[in-house]
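Quick question, first post here. What does this chain look like in 3D?
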Amino acid sequence: METYDAAIVGGGIIGLASAWRAAQRGLRVCVLERESAGRGATAAAAGVLAPDPETPGFTALARRSSELWPSFAEELRSETGIDPGYTRCGSLALAFDGTRDDTTGGVWLEGGECRALEPGIAADCRGGLLLPQDAQVDPRRAVAALAALLGDALRVNADVVELDGHGVVLADGTRIEAERVVLAAGAWSSRRLAKRLPIAPVKGQTLRLRGSLPATRIIRSEHVYVVPRASGETVIGATIEDAGFDTTVTAQATELLLGRARRAVPAVGALELVEAVASLRPATPDGGPLIGEWEGLLVAGGHHRNGILLAPVTAEAVAALLAGEAPPPEAEPFNPGRF
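> Answer (accepted):
Ran it through. Tokens below.
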């Protein structure tokens, strides 16, 4: 029977990053992923590193993780040769009705100033908020780097069907023992493994396009964001749908996102659509993540639309807890025991 210091259920960016940080502390870990690494919400994510304005209440946690991202990305690049694409490109939040909104910081620009910075945006933009601290990363490249670092500690096609505080059982009957079990299975955590855990799925669809980049910054407008990457890829997202565990890509959502993106950035119309993806974000009742002890398990989940942003600080917290240390203070308000 295999025995580990920690068995981590879920091979998205949260589970992989947590396993990496734990291994760096000398712990023997395994990551159990029922499909391939990063295939779920991580693969669909645009990789915007800025707090989601629709999920308030965790400014300190988001700020701490934002501060960790540059060194986190550089470690991945230097140790694997895989560049995760971290770029502090800034973002521009457009306004078309003339309403000035600088409550979240940043610098307010009038319409002409916005177009001087980003000629590809709509001609009738009345103004926008420039947020130079916002950044981006390519989640798929980050996952590739983490998977390379973990090597044989990552087990794909390993479907966990049962778990408790001291181990897990795979679909093929294999029992894996561990001193601690970390549940990081995203939206599927509560459906398949821990039904009382307060996590629910929120469907989101994103698009990937190729062609001349329509902007140099992340462009935000009502209900849409446009993320240009140096690789030549542009990501557009994202819908918010109450659709249970359905992950079907729909033509309706694709047209909706394209229409919203073209309204904000007409230059998007010249790009070629190469991929549409649907995934499930793990949401909690108060919008904050779950990081900490819960019924004999360690939980790292419920990150909703902020999983990529919060990966470094969540990994630090999980690794510290596994090592018997206190997590970063910014994570303490998000203990699952609050529910």
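The mean pLDDT is 94.
The two ends are 35 Å apart (CA to CA).
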